[in-house]
Design a protein that fits this description.
The complex is a heterodimer of chains A (239) and B (494). Chain A has helices at 40-47, 90-100, 105-113, 116-119, 135-147, 165-182, 193-199, 222-238; strands spanning 2-11, 14-24, 29-33, 55-60, 63-64, 75-78, 153-157, 185-189, 202-207, 210-216. With 239 residues, chain A is α/β, with parallel strands linked by helices. Chain A has a single domain, classed as P-loop containing nucleotide triphosphate hydrolases (Rossmann fold), CATH 3.40.50.300. A six-stranded mixed β-sheet of chain A has the order 6-7-8-3-9-10, with helices on both faces. Chain A starts with a strand and ends with a helix. By secondary structure, chain B is mainly α. Chain B folds into two domains: 2-240, no CATH class; 255-491. In chain B, 77% of the residues lie in helices and 0% in strands. Chain B starts with a helix and ends with a helix. The model of chain B has no long low-confidence stretch (mean pLDDT 85). Classes of the chains: A alpha/beta (239), B mainly alpha (494). The interface between A and B is medium-sized, with 33 and 35 residues.
Chain lengths: 239, 494
């Protein structure tokens, strides 16, 4: 599904991403973890062709993301507020996004039913512009917009941010369900190690742009190793 | 003083701006054009004294200057509205620091008065004072005259800042400078016996007792400073504290664009951006206002009756709105550029939608010029030719900024989120505004009106009919600079 080869990105002297080889298979739910500045968002931006790599390439379904735009039709992503057109109401935004993927209004309405509980009556029908909404509700709009066209590849940066506990559990559950039921590949980044370990079938640990750990759920020390890493880091910083 | 640190930050903000490199080149070009302007003013400074003596033999030229200084102030404000950026700075980071609010606002105001533009009028006043004041009051008299005038220009700079800030609050405040300067100018004509002596005395005092008048001028400056600071403070803090009201029942969907498919969807998006965001809306209203003002001037006055000025006014009527709006293309979109970029070719449809929509908006200018046509002052063929030329040629030039704009302009915050325009944008804007005007004027001198109109129409039509090609070219060139632009747009997003 996704192949990353010799991908590097430097900001000045600082290495943001340096990955020799990484394959992410269809149907995997991958968690990207790492401390601040590890390169998670940069990696997402490189995968989405929003940032120029210094070297290397990313292919999605065999398509080099730099050379063709065809991968966009089957990819959904939400990274930050730059992915929202905040002077639209959520409905207008969803219809706009839906149209970009060739969805009729009725299809969008039907799809939104899937997110009814998640929206909790605070998104649709309020006639509020997105910019007038709380951070949590903006986050919900972003996540829904990324999933609207049922993408084969879903990329979410910090999806649990700003959400209340109930909504965090919703996100965790429907990402798992979405991945299982559609066979889609889902990649999330998160600082919430508990949820990441809980929901992801595979976890990638980044440190200063390098992939330092790649663990699958079936690995024996899956959880332990990740926990040990962050505890060790905290100890080092403390001392 | 903390103000100097704040000013240093503002300088760094400009220097570390993604557009800085481009700004440097354009700044040089702007300085060169400023120099040409200075030569022009020098010429007037030398020509005015004999002219005033001839026209008003009962007065010394500096008396007449005192009387005409209101026109200079009004012109100064007008030029500032055309070319100067509205006051803005990244103020949010300072608000919670233990720095007095007044000191933060002082930074904005110091920035306004230290602008090199304030010195430009001295090119007019120095030679004028040398010729007219020197024989009576010596070199110190000249310096006193110039110093008093300079302080009056600084007061004008502060007032301009206040007008712009108030306009950010409500566009209706555009009437304030018109009323203030208009009333004084009207007074000079209608209440001559009252106003003339006041301003003649002002000119006399600046010349004869400049150094005694200077403290008075400084006191006035300080008073204006305090008033303007109070206004700025209220505008800035109301902006910082603003919580948008829910837009219940006020959400129009412009469904009539639905029949145009994808293009219509982006036209709807553009309409919503224009209507729902303060900065975009104000830019639109400014364009419309400029059109109405120039139509009014052409319709009711003789100010633009000669060929050159007439062409200037007409060109401005047709291009103002489009230039104001389209010069910000991608800068406004920078707020949600990622949303557009992760969807296939949506950007090309977006710029097409923008272009077609603004061709439609330009028709407003065509409609508004009809009364002048009916009055018989201008031929309809000239108006129509200018409309087509504007859509086909001027827009093609201004839309090149899609490729080069890499600084996000806030959609709603006006003062507290940093600069609004860039040097490159200003240069292309000025080019798009003045070059066609110059070319048309030259053609008007060389060729019959019908031929010039035909040239304008044909070149405009060629531009319009090939719009698909040059818009795609813009899109492809944008894509070549994509990463660089995205980085800049993202880095400057509020």
């Amino acid at each position: 599904m996704i192949e990353i080869r010799n991908l590097t990105k430097y900001f000045g002297e600082k290495c943001a991403v340096n990955i020799d080889s990484l394959d992410i298979n269809d149907g995997e739910l991958v968690g990207l973890v790492g401390n601040n500045g590890a390169g998670k968002t940069t990696l997402f931006r490189l995968m989405l062709d929003l940032l120029k790599a210094d070297s290397g390439d990313v292919t999605i379904d065999g398509i080099d993301v730099v050379k063709s735009e065809d991968w966009k039709q089957t990819t959904g992503a939400f990274v930050d507020s730059g992915f929202l057109i905040d002077y639209l109401t959520p409905e207008e935004f969803f219809y706009f996004i839906g149209k970009a993927y060739g969805m009729a209004k009725a299809d969008v309405d039907e799809r939104l039913l899937y997110f009814n509980d998640f929206m909790n009556g605070e998104i649709i029908g309020t006639k509020k512009l997105i910019r007038s909404m709380s951070m949590g509700n903006k986050q919900k709009v972003g996540i829904i917009s990324a999933m609207l066209h049922s993408p084969k590849l879903l990329i979410l940066d910090e999806p649990f941010n700003f959400l209340d506990p109930t909504s965090q559990i919703y996100v965790k559950d429907f990402l798992d369900e979405y991945c299982r039921s559609t066979g889609a590949t889902v990649i999330i980044s998160s600082h919430n190690l508990g949820y990441t370990i809980d929901v992801c079938t595979r976890v990638l640990l980044l440190e200063s742009g390098l992939l330092v750990c790649d663990k699958h759920k079936e690995d024996e020390d899956f959880e332990q190793q990740l926990n040990d890493y962050f505890i060790k880091k905290a100890d080092v910083q403390h001392t | 003083m903390i103000e100097f640190d704040l000013l240093k930050h503002k300088r760094l903000e400009a220097k570390r701006n993604p557009m800085y490199e481009g700004n440097k080149v354009t700044k040089i070009i702007l300085y060169i054009s400023g120099l040409l302007w200075a030569v022009y003013l020098l010429m007037f400074g030398v020509l005015f004294p004999p002219l005033f003596t001839e026209l008003f033999p009962a007065y010394e030229p500096y008396h007449v200057f005192g009387n005409g200084v209101v026109f200079i102030w009004a012109l100064d404000i007008f030029i500032r509205f055309l070319y100067q950026k509205p006051p803005s700075a990244q103020l949010k980071p300072y608000i919670l620091l233990p720095i007095g609010k007044n000191r933060i606002i002082n930074m904005l105001m110091i920035d306004a008065i230290r602008s090199p533009y304030n010195l430009v009028w001295l090119f007019l006043v120095f030679p004028f004072a040398f010729i007219t004041v020197l024989p009576f009051y010596g070199f110190m008299g000249v310096l006193g005259f110039v110093a008093c005038f300079y302080v009056s220009i600084l007061i004008n700079a502060l007032l301009y800042m206040m007008f712009r800030s108030l306009m950010a609050k409500s566009f209706a405040y555009v009437l304030l400078p018109i009323v203030i300067y208009g009333l004084v100018i009207a007074g000079l004509f209608l209440l001559e016996d009252w106003f003339w002596p006041v301003f003649v005395t002002l000119g006399d005092l600046w010349a004869s007792s400049g150094w005694l008048m200077l403290p008075v001028m400084i006191v006035v400056f300080i008073l204006v400073w305090l008033v303007v600071r109070k206004v700025e403070l209220s505008v800035v803090y109301s902006e910082l504290a603003s919580v948008e009201k829910p837009t219940k029942d006020n959400v129009t969907d412009y469904t009539f664009f639905d029949r145009l498919g994808d293009l219509g969807e982006y036209m709807k998006l553009e309409m919503k951006m224009d209507v729902r965001n303060k900065n975009v809306r104000n830019a639109f209203l400014t364009g419309l206002f400029a059109i109405v003002v120039f139509v009014g001037l052409l319709l009711f006055t003789d100010m633009y009756s000669d060929g050159f000025m007439n062409t200037f006014a007409l060109s401005y009527i047709f291009s103002a709105l489009g230039i104001i709006m389209l010069s910000k293309t991608m800068s406004f979109e920078g707020n949600y550029i990622d949303c557009l970029m992760i969807r296939k070719v949506s950007l090309l449809t977006l710029i097409k939608a923008k272009y077609y929509l603004h061709c439609m908006f330009s028709a407003i200018a065509l409609l508004l010029t009809l009364p002048i046509v009916f009055k018989g002052d201008i031929a309809f063929s000239r108006c129509f030719a200018l409309y087509v030329f504007n859509c086909g040629v001027v827009f093609a030039v201004i839309m090149q900024l899609v490729v080069y704009n890499k600084k996000t302009t806030p959609l709603n915050d006006t003062i507290v989120k940093g600069g609004m325009t860039t040097g490159l944008a200003e240069m292309i804007t000025m080019g798009a505004l003045f070059l066609p005007m110059l070319v048309i004027n030259i053609l008007d001198v060389l060729l019959p009106l019908v031929v010039v109109d035909a040239i304008l129409m044909v070149s405009g039509l060629v531009g319009m009919l090939t719009s698909g090609l040059w818009l795609r070219n813009i899109y492809n060139r944008f894509n070549r600079r994509k990463y660089q632009n995205l980085e800049g747009l993202r880095a400057t997003r509020p």
